[in-house]
Give the backbone structure.
Amino acid sequence: MAKMWAGRTDGAVNVLADDFNSSIHFDSRMFEEDIKGSMAHAAMLGAQGIIEKDEADRLIEGLSSILSDLSSGALAFDMTAEDIHMFVEQVLTERLGDLGKKLHTARSRNDQVALDFRMYLRRALDEIRALTKKLCATVTEKAEEYADLIMPGYTHLQRAQPILFGHHLMAYAMMLLRDIDRLADCRRRMNVSPIGCCALAGTTYRTDRYFEAEKLGFDGICLNSLDGVSDRDFALEMLSALSVLMMHLSRFSEEIILWCSWEFKFVELSDSFTTGSSIMPQKKNPDMAELVRGKTGRVYGDLMALLTTMKGLPLAYNKDMQEDKEGVFDAIDTVTMCLKVFDGMVATMKANKENMLRAAQKGFINATDLADYLVKKGMPFRTAYKISGGLVAKCIRENTVLEELPLGAFRAESELFEESVYEAISLRTCVETRISEGGTSLASVKKQIEYAKNCLQMN
Ligand code: ARG
Protein backbone atom coordinates (compact mmCIF):
# COMPACT_ATOMS: atom_id res chain seq x y z
CA MET A 1 0.00 0.00 0.00
CA ALA A 2 1.35 3.45 -0.89
CA LYS A 3 2.34 5.45 2.18
CA MET A 4 0.77 8.70 3.31
CA TRP A 5 4.27 10.11 3.17
CA ALA A 6 4.87 8.94 -0.44
CA GLY A 7 6.25 11.89 -2.35
CA ARG A 8 10.00 12.06 -2.27
CA THR A 9 9.91 8.25 -2.64
CA ASP A 10 7.18 6.15 -4.18
CA GLY A 11 6.31 4.88 -0.72
CA ALA A 12 6.42 1.24 -1.79
CA VAL A 13 8.45 -0.35 1.00
CA ASN A 14 9.76 -3.90 1.10
CA VAL A 15 7.33 -6.08 3.04
CA LEU A 16 9.87 -7.07 5.66
CA ALA A 17 11.09 -3.51 6.06
CA ASP A 18 7.51 -2.32 6.36
CA ASP A 19 6.80 -4.83 9.08
CA PHE A 20 10.02 -3.97 10.86
CA ASN A 21 9.20 -0.28 10.74
CA SER A 22 5.63 -0.60 11.96
CA SER A 23 4.69 0.11 15.57
CA ILE A 24 0.90 -0.16 15.48
CA HIS A 25 0.92 -3.51 17.27
CA PHE A 26 2.09 -1.78 20.42
CA ASP A 27 1.29 1.92 20.04
CA SER A 28 -2.40 1.23 19.30
CA ARG A 29 -2.86 1.23 23.07
CA MET A 30 -2.40 5.01 22.92
CA PHE A 31 -5.39 5.50 20.58
CA GLU A 32 -7.40 7.49 23.10
CA GLU A 33 -4.55 9.88 23.80
CA ASP A 34 -3.80 10.21 20.08
CA ILE A 35 -7.37 11.11 19.23
CA LYS A 36 -7.82 13.51 22.15
CA GLY A 37 -4.55 15.20 21.21
CA SER A 38 -5.78 15.57 17.63
CA MET A 39 -9.09 17.02 18.79
CA ALA A 40 -7.24 19.68 20.78
CA HIS A 41 -5.03 20.33 17.78
CA ALA A 42 -8.00 20.77 15.44
CA ALA A 43 -9.64 23.11 17.96
CA MET A 44 -6.46 25.19 18.15
CA LEU A 45 -6.15 25.36 14.34
CA GLY A 46 -9.77 26.61 14.20
CA ALA A 47 -9.39 29.09 17.05
CA GLN A 48 -6.26 30.56 15.47
CA GLY A 49 -7.87 30.86 12.03
CA ILE A 50 -5.36 28.45 10.48
CA ILE A 51 -8.34 26.42 9.26
CA GLU A 52 -12.03 27.48 9.17
CA LYS A 53 -13.91 27.21 12.45
CA ASP A 54 -16.45 24.94 10.77
CA GLU A 55 -13.69 22.69 9.44
CA ALA A 56 -12.29 22.34 12.94
CA ASP A 57 -15.72 21.36 14.24
CA ARG A 58 -16.10 18.69 11.58
CA LEU A 59 -12.62 17.33 12.24
CA ILE A 60 -13.43 17.10 15.94
CA GLU A 61 -16.72 15.34 15.19
CA GLY A 62 -14.95 12.89 12.88
CA LEU A 63 -12.28 12.21 15.48
CA SER A 64 -14.85 11.69 18.19
CA SER A 65 -16.70 9.14 16.02
CA ILE A 66 -13.41 7.26 15.52
CA LEU A 67 -12.82 7.30 19.27
CA SER A 68 -16.20 5.83 20.05
CA ASP A 69 -15.96 3.25 17.24
CA LEU A 70 -12.55 2.10 18.44
CA SER A 71 -13.74 1.97 22.06
CA SER A 72 -16.85 -0.03 21.18
CA GLY A 73 -14.99 -2.34 18.83
CA ALA A 74 -17.02 -1.22 15.81
CA LEU A 75 -13.75 -0.17 14.20
CA ALA A 76 -10.73 -2.48 14.24
CA PHE A 77 -7.10 -1.42 14.03
CA ASP A 78 -5.52 -1.93 10.67
CA MET A 79 -2.41 -3.84 11.55
CA THR A 80 -0.82 -2.95 8.23
CA ALA A 81 -0.85 0.74 9.16
CA GLU A 82 2.53 2.17 10.15
CA ASP A 83 1.50 3.44 13.55
CA ILE A 84 -1.48 4.68 15.52
CA HIS A 85 -1.02 8.26 14.30
CA MET A 86 -1.12 7.25 10.62
CA PHE A 87 -4.02 4.92 11.24
CA VAL A 88 -6.25 7.55 12.84
CA GLU A 89 -5.46 10.09 10.11
CA GLN A 90 -6.12 7.48 7.44
CA VAL A 91 -9.57 6.63 8.88
CA LEU A 92 -10.35 10.31 9.33
CA THR A 93 -9.57 10.98 5.68
CA GLU A 94 -11.66 8.01 4.60
CA ARG A 95 -14.56 9.45 6.58
CA LEU A 96 -14.16 13.17 5.82
CA GLY A 97 -12.40 13.22 2.48
CA ASP A 98 -9.87 15.99 1.84
CA LEU A 99 -10.73 17.79 5.06
CA GLY A 100 -9.06 14.94 6.98
CA LYS A 101 -5.79 15.86 5.30
CA LYS A 102 -5.86 19.27 6.98
CA LEU A 103 -5.46 17.88 10.50
CA HIS A 104 -1.71 17.49 10.25
CA THR A 105 -1.16 21.22 9.58
CA ALA A 106 1.41 22.73 11.97
CA ARG A 107 2.20 19.35 13.48
CA SER A 108 4.58 16.45 13.00
CA ARG A 109 4.43 12.89 14.20
CA ASN A 110 7.48 13.78 16.25
CA ASP A 111 5.61 16.12 18.56
CA GLN A 112 2.45 14.02 18.22
CA VAL A 113 4.08 10.84 19.51
CA ALA A 114 5.80 12.74 22.33
CA LEU A 115 2.40 14.15 23.29
CA ASP A 116 0.59 10.80 23.19
CA PHE A 117 3.31 9.13 25.19
CA ARG A 118 3.28 11.76 27.92
CA MET A 119 -0.50 11.60 28.16
CA TYR A 120 -0.53 7.82 28.29
CA LEU A 121 2.17 7.67 30.95
CA ARG A 122 0.44 10.38 32.98
CA ARG A 123 -2.70 8.25 33.14
CA ALA A 124 -0.74 5.09 33.95
CA LEU A 125 1.25 6.92 36.60
CA ASP A 126 -1.95 8.10 38.30
CA GLU A 127 -3.31 4.56 38.34
CA ILE A 128 -0.09 3.08 39.70
CA ARG A 129 0.10 5.81 42.32
CA ALA A 130 -3.45 5.01 43.45
CA LEU A 131 -2.58 1.30 43.70
CA THR A 132 0.55 2.11 45.68
CA LYS A 133 -1.53 4.19 48.07
CA LYS A 134 -3.93 1.30 48.47
CA LEU A 135 -1.09 -1.09 49.26
CA CYS A 136 0.42 1.38 51.71
CA ALA A 137 -2.95 1.63 53.47
CA THR A 138 -3.17 -2.17 53.65
CA VAL A 139 0.33 -2.47 55.12
CA THR A 140 -0.51 0.25 57.64
CA GLU A 141 -3.70 -1.60 58.64
CA LYS A 142 -1.70 -4.81 59.12
CA ALA A 143 0.78 -2.87 61.25
CA GLU A 144 -2.11 -1.64 63.35
CA GLU A 145 -3.60 -5.12 63.69
CA TYR A 146 -0.25 -6.58 64.78
CA ALA A 147 1.17 -3.47 66.40
CA ASP A 148 2.41 -5.09 69.61
CA LEU A 149 3.66 -8.53 68.55
CA ILE A 150 7.26 -9.01 69.65
CA MET A 151 9.66 -10.41 67.08
CA PRO A 152 13.41 -10.49 66.66
CA GLY A 153 14.85 -7.59 64.68
CA TYR A 154 17.82 -8.57 62.52
CA THR A 155 21.09 -7.24 61.22
CA HIS A 156 23.17 -9.53 58.98
CA LEU A 157 20.12 -11.79 59.27
CA GLN A 158 21.32 -12.49 62.82
CA ARG A 159 18.96 -11.82 65.70
CA ALA A 160 19.85 -8.34 66.93
CA GLN A 161 17.27 -6.63 69.16
CA PRO A 162 13.60 -7.26 69.87
CA ILE A 163 11.18 -5.13 67.88
CA LEU A 164 7.43 -4.98 67.33
CA PHE A 165 6.01 -6.57 64.18
CA GLY A 166 4.04 -3.36 63.69
CA HIS A 167 7.35 -1.48 63.61
CA HIS A 168 8.75 -3.83 60.98
CA LEU A 169 5.67 -3.47 58.79
CA MET A 170 5.71 0.31 59.14
CA ALA A 171 9.23 0.35 57.67
CA TYR A 172 7.65 -0.88 54.44
CA ALA A 173 4.84 1.66 54.72
CA MET A 174 7.50 4.39 54.89
CA MET A 175 9.12 3.07 51.69
CA LEU A 176 5.77 3.06 49.93
CA LEU A 177 5.07 6.63 51.11
CA ARG A 178 8.32 7.67 49.42
CA ASP A 179 7.28 5.81 46.26
CA ILE A 180 3.98 7.67 46.23
CA ASP A 181 5.86 10.94 46.62
CA ARG A 182 8.43 10.03 43.96
CA LEU A 183 5.67 9.32 41.45
CA ALA A 184 4.04 12.68 42.18
CA ASP A 185 7.37 14.40 41.68
CA CYS A 186 7.93 12.57 38.41
CA ARG A 187 4.46 13.59 37.21
CA ARG A 188 5.30 17.26 37.73
CA ARG A 189 8.06 17.18 35.09
CA MET A 190 6.11 14.80 32.86
CA ASN A 191 3.12 17.10 32.69
CA VAL A 192 4.41 19.66 30.17
CA SER A 193 3.20 19.63 26.59
CA PRO A 194 5.46 19.00 23.60
CA ILE A 195 2.73 19.59 21.00
CA GLY A 196 3.56 22.50 18.72
CA CYS A 197 7.30 21.73 18.69
CA CYS A 198 6.45 20.18 15.30
CA ALA A 199 9.19 18.23 13.53
CA LEU A 200 12.05 19.87 15.43
CA ALA A 201 12.17 23.62 14.82
CA GLY A 202 8.69 24.90 15.57
CA THR A 203 6.41 26.23 12.84
CA THR A 204 5.66 29.26 10.67
CA TYR A 205 1.93 29.12 11.54
CA ARG A 206 0.55 31.29 14.31
CA THR A 207 -0.22 28.40 16.63
CA ASP A 208 -1.18 28.68 20.30
CA ARG A 209 0.68 26.00 22.21
CA TYR A 210 -0.74 27.10 25.55
CA PHE A 211 -4.28 26.64 24.27
CA GLU A 212 -3.57 23.00 23.38
CA ALA A 213 -1.62 22.35 26.56
CA GLU A 214 -4.44 23.66 28.71
CA LYS A 215 -7.11 21.72 26.83
CA LEU A 216 -5.13 18.51 27.43
CA GLY A 217 -4.55 19.11 31.14
CA PHE A 218 -0.88 20.04 31.03
CA ASP A 219 0.67 22.50 33.47
CA GLY A 220 2.93 24.09 30.88
CA ILE A 221 4.79 23.56 27.59
CA CYS A 222 8.26 22.33 26.60
CA LEU A 223 10.21 25.53 26.06
CA ASN A 224 12.68 24.30 23.43
CA SER A 225 11.29 22.58 20.35
CA LEU A 226 14.34 20.35 19.83
CA ASP A 227 14.16 19.23 23.44
CA GLY A 228 10.38 18.83 23.26
CA VAL A 229 10.53 16.19 20.54
CA SER A 230 13.65 14.38 21.70
CA ASP A 231 13.20 14.32 25.48
CA ARG A 232 12.26 11.00 27.07
CA ASP A 233 13.37 11.87 30.60
CA PHE A 234 9.76 11.59 31.79
CA ALA A 235 9.70 7.92 30.73
CA LEU A 236 13.10 7.28 32.30
CA GLU A 237 12.07 8.95 35.54
CA MET A 238 8.91 6.91 35.66
CA LEU A 239 10.87 3.71 35.00
CA SER A 240 13.32 4.55 37.75
CA ALA A 241 10.52 5.34 40.19
CA LEU A 242 8.93 2.00 39.24
CA SER A 243 12.27 0.23 39.65
CA VAL A 244 12.67 1.59 43.18
CA LEU A 245 9.07 0.63 43.96
CA MET A 246 9.72 -2.91 42.69
CA MET A 247 12.94 -3.07 44.72
CA HIS A 248 10.83 -2.35 47.82
CA LEU A 249 8.25 -4.98 46.91
CA SER A 250 11.06 -7.42 46.21
CA ARG A 251 12.66 -6.92 49.64
CA PHE A 252 9.26 -7.30 51.27
CA SER A 253 8.70 -10.46 49.19
CA GLU A 254 12.01 -11.87 50.30
CA GLU A 255 11.06 -11.41 53.95
CA ILE A 256 7.62 -12.90 53.44
CA ILE A 257 9.23 -15.92 51.76
CA LEU A 258 11.59 -16.34 54.72
CA TRP A 259 8.81 -15.82 57.25
CA CYS A 260 6.71 -18.52 55.55
CA SER A 261 9.47 -21.12 55.77
CA TRP A 262 9.34 -23.84 58.43
CA GLU A 263 12.54 -22.37 59.84
CA PHE A 264 10.72 -19.13 60.72
CA LYS A 265 6.96 -19.73 60.54
CA PHE A 266 6.32 -16.10 61.51
CA VAL A 267 3.45 -15.70 59.05
CA GLU A 268 0.94 -17.81 57.22
CA LEU A 269 -0.25 -16.74 53.79
CA SER A 270 -3.84 -17.36 52.80
CA ASP A 271 -4.42 -20.46 50.67
CA SER A 272 -5.77 -18.17 47.97
CA PHE A 273 -2.36 -16.54 47.58
CA THR A 274 -0.19 -19.66 47.62
CA THR A 275 0.26 -22.72 45.44
CA GLY A 276 0.93 -26.39 46.04
CA SER A 277 3.56 -28.66 44.59
CA SER A 278 2.74 -31.20 41.89
CA ILE A 279 4.80 -33.85 43.71
CA MET A 280 5.30 -32.88 47.36
CA PRO A 281 1.94 -32.99 49.14
CA GLN A 282 3.14 -31.01 52.18
CA LYS A 283 4.09 -27.91 50.19
CA LYS A 284 2.46 -24.51 50.36
CA ASN A 285 4.58 -22.22 48.27
CA PRO A 286 4.73 -18.41 48.39
CA ASP A 287 4.73 -18.15 44.57
CA MET A 288 3.18 -14.69 44.49
CA ALA A 289 5.99 -13.20 46.55
CA GLU A 290 8.58 -15.08 44.50
CA LEU A 291 7.08 -13.82 41.25
CA VAL A 292 7.08 -10.24 42.47
CA ARG A 293 10.73 -10.67 43.44
CA GLY A 294 11.44 -12.20 40.03
CA LYS A 295 9.56 -9.60 38.03
CA THR A 296 11.64 -6.86 39.63
CA GLY A 297 14.42 -7.88 37.24
CA ARG A 298 12.17 -7.20 34.25
CA VAL A 299 11.40 -3.68 35.38
CA TYR A 300 15.10 -2.92 35.99
CA GLY A 301 15.72 -4.31 32.48
CA ASP A 302 13.11 -1.97 31.00
CA LEU A 303 14.89 0.98 32.63
CA MET A 304 18.32 -0.14 31.40
CA ALA A 305 17.01 -0.70 27.87
CA LEU A 306 15.64 2.82 27.53
CA LEU A 307 18.69 4.44 29.12
CA THR A 308 20.83 2.58 26.59
CA THR A 309 18.57 3.43 23.64
CA MET A 310 18.78 7.13 24.46
CA LYS A 311 22.45 7.44 25.28
CA GLY A 312 23.92 8.09 21.83
CA LEU A 313 21.11 9.89 20.05
CA PRO A 314 21.85 13.17 18.33
CA LEU A 315 19.10 15.80 18.46
CA ALA A 316 16.31 15.71 17.62
CA TYR A 317 13.99 12.76 16.77
CA ASN A 318 15.53 9.47 15.64
CA LYS A 319 13.63 6.31 14.83
CA ASP A 320 15.49 4.57 17.66
CA MET A 321 13.02 6.37 19.89
CA GLN A 322 10.18 4.18 18.69
CA GLU A 323 11.83 1.64 21.01
CA ASP A 324 10.82 3.77 24.00
CA LYS A 325 7.32 2.37 24.34
CA GLU A 326 7.29 -1.42 24.70
CA GLY A 327 9.59 -1.48 27.73
CA VAL A 328 7.62 1.21 29.51
CA PHE A 329 4.32 -0.52 28.72
CA ASP A 330 5.79 -3.77 30.02
CA ALA A 331 6.90 -2.06 33.23
CA ILE A 332 3.46 -0.49 33.68
CA ASP A 333 1.66 -3.82 33.20
CA THR A 334 4.11 -5.64 35.45
CA VAL A 335 3.99 -3.14 38.30
CA THR A 336 0.20 -2.87 38.09
CA MET A 337 -0.22 -6.64 38.44
CA CYS A 338 2.39 -6.88 41.20
CA LEU A 339 0.74 -4.14 43.26
CA LYS A 340 -2.70 -5.72 42.99
CA VAL A 341 -1.52 -9.21 43.91
CA PHE A 342 0.73 -7.95 46.67
CA ASP A 343 -2.13 -6.02 48.23
CA GLY A 344 -4.31 -9.12 48.40
CA MET A 345 -1.47 -11.23 49.73
CA VAL A 346 -0.64 -8.80 52.56
CA ALA A 347 -4.29 -8.17 53.42
CA THR A 348 -4.87 -11.88 54.03
CA MET A 349 -1.53 -12.65 55.70
CA LYS A 350 -1.72 -13.89 59.30
CA ALA A 351 1.04 -13.48 61.87
CA ASN A 352 2.04 -16.25 64.27
CA LYS A 353 2.46 -14.48 67.60
CA GLU A 354 3.93 -17.45 69.52
CA ASN A 355 6.57 -18.29 66.93
CA MET A 356 7.71 -14.70 66.68
CA LEU A 357 8.00 -14.41 70.44
CA ARG A 358 9.79 -17.76 70.73
CA ALA A 359 12.34 -16.67 68.13
CA ALA A 360 12.87 -13.43 70.03
CA GLN A 361 13.52 -15.33 73.25
CA LYS A 362 16.52 -17.07 71.75
CA GLY A 363 19.71 -15.44 70.62
CA PHE A 364 20.38 -13.02 73.50
CA ILE A 365 18.70 -10.13 71.79
CA ASN A 366 18.45 -8.37 75.16
CA ALA A 367 22.23 -8.20 75.61
CA THR A 368 22.30 -4.48 74.62
CA ASP A 369 19.67 -3.80 77.27
CA LEU A 370 21.73 -5.64 79.85
CA ALA A 371 24.67 -3.33 79.09
CA ASP A 372 22.37 -0.28 79.13
CA TYR A 373 21.17 -1.33 82.61
CA LEU A 374 24.70 -0.92 83.94
CA VAL A 375 25.27 2.30 81.99
CA LYS A 376 22.15 3.82 83.56
CA LYS A 377 23.74 3.03 86.94
CA GLY A 378 26.86 5.00 86.01
CA MET A 379 29.17 2.49 84.31
CA PRO A 380 30.89 3.60 81.04
CA PHE A 381 29.26 1.89 78.01
CA ARG A 382 32.40 0.05 76.83
CA THR A 383 32.91 -1.54 80.26
CA ALA A 384 29.25 -2.51 80.47
CA TYR A 385 29.43 -3.95 76.94
CA LYS A 386 32.30 -6.21 78.01
CA ILE A 387 30.50 -7.48 81.11
CA SER A 388 27.32 -8.13 79.12
CA GLY A 389 29.32 -10.02 76.47
CA GLY A 390 30.99 -12.10 79.19
CA LEU A 391 27.62 -13.05 80.65
CA VAL A 392 26.35 -14.09 77.21
CA ALA A 393 29.43 -16.29 76.77
CA LYS A 394 28.74 -17.84 80.19
CA CYS A 395 25.12 -18.57 79.20
CA ILE A 396 26.26 -20.20 75.96
CA ARG A 397 28.75 -22.37 77.89
CA GLU A 398 26.08 -23.36 80.38
CA ASN A 399 23.33 -23.71 77.80
CA THR A 400 21.03 -21.15 79.39
CA VAL A 401 19.73 -17.61 78.74
CA LEU A 402 20.31 -14.26 80.51
CA GLU A 403 16.82 -14.21 82.06
CA GLU A 404 17.56 -17.54 83.80
CA LEU A 405 20.90 -16.64 85.39
CA PRO A 406 20.73 -16.37 89.20
CA LEU A 407 21.32 -12.90 90.65
CA GLY A 408 24.61 -14.14 92.13
CA ALA A 409 25.98 -14.80 88.66
CA PHE A 410 25.20 -11.21 87.65
CA ARG A 411 26.64 -9.75 90.86
CA ALA A 412 29.84 -11.76 90.42
CA GLU A 413 30.49 -9.51 87.40
CA SER A 414 29.28 -6.22 88.90
CA GLU A 415 27.89 -5.03 92.21
CA LEU A 416 25.60 -2.70 90.28
CA PHE A 417 23.28 -5.60 89.38
CA GLU A 418 20.14 -5.84 91.52
CA GLU A 419 16.86 -7.73 91.39
CA SER A 420 15.55 -5.08 88.95
CA VAL A 421 17.82 -6.49 86.23
CA TYR A 422 15.24 -9.16 85.38
CA GLU A 423 12.59 -6.57 84.66
CA ALA A 424 15.10 -4.50 82.64
CA ILE A 425 15.95 -7.36 80.29
CA SER A 426 12.46 -8.70 79.77
CA LEU A 427 11.62 -8.50 76.07
CA ARG A 428 8.56 -6.34 76.68
CA THR A 429 10.70 -3.80 78.60
CA CYS A 430 13.35 -3.88 75.87
CA VAL A 431 10.74 -2.92 73.32
CA GLU A 432 8.74 -0.51 75.44
CA THR A 433 11.73 1.51 76.55
CA ARG A 434 12.87 2.24 72.99
CA ILE A 435 11.03 5.52 73.14
CA SER A 436 13.34 7.57 70.91
CA GLU A 437 11.58 9.15 67.89
CA GLY A 438 11.08 6.48 65.24
CA GLY A 439 12.01 3.69 67.68
CA THR A 440 10.13 0.45 68.21
CA SER A 441 8.07 1.32 71.33
CA LEU A 442 4.34 0.88 70.90
CA ALA A 443 3.78 4.62 71.28
CA SER A 444 6.24 5.28 68.47
CA VAL A 445 4.64 2.65 66.21
CA LYS A 446 1.23 4.22 66.82
CA LYS A 447 2.65 7.60 65.92
CA GLN A 448 4.03 6.20 62.66
CA ILE A 449 0.66 4.67 61.85
CA GLU A 450 -1.04 8.04 62.40
CA TYR A 451 1.55 9.75 60.22
CA ALA A 452 1.05 7.29 57.35
CA LYS A 453 -2.72 7.57 57.56
CA ASN A 454 -2.47 11.37 57.37
CA CYS A 455 -0.14 11.22 54.38
CA LEU A 456 -2.49 8.84 52.59
CA GLN A 457 -5.44 11.12 53.22
CA MET A 458 -3.67 14.16 51.79
CA ASN A 459 -3.91 12.94 48.18
N1 ARG B 1 5.95 5.46 15.42
C1 ARG B 1 6.86 6.54 15.66
C2 ARG B 1 7.40 6.42 17.09
O1 ARG B 1 6.86 5.69 17.85
C3 ARG B 1 6.17 7.84 15.49
C4 ARG B 1 7.04 8.99 15.12
C5 ARG B 1 7.51 8.84 13.77
N2 ARG B 1 8.21 9.98 13.31
C6 ARG B 1 8.98 9.95 12.23
N3 ARG B 1 9.57 11.01 11.88
N4 ARG B 1 9.12 8.84 11.56
O2 ARG B 1 8.41 7.01 17.46
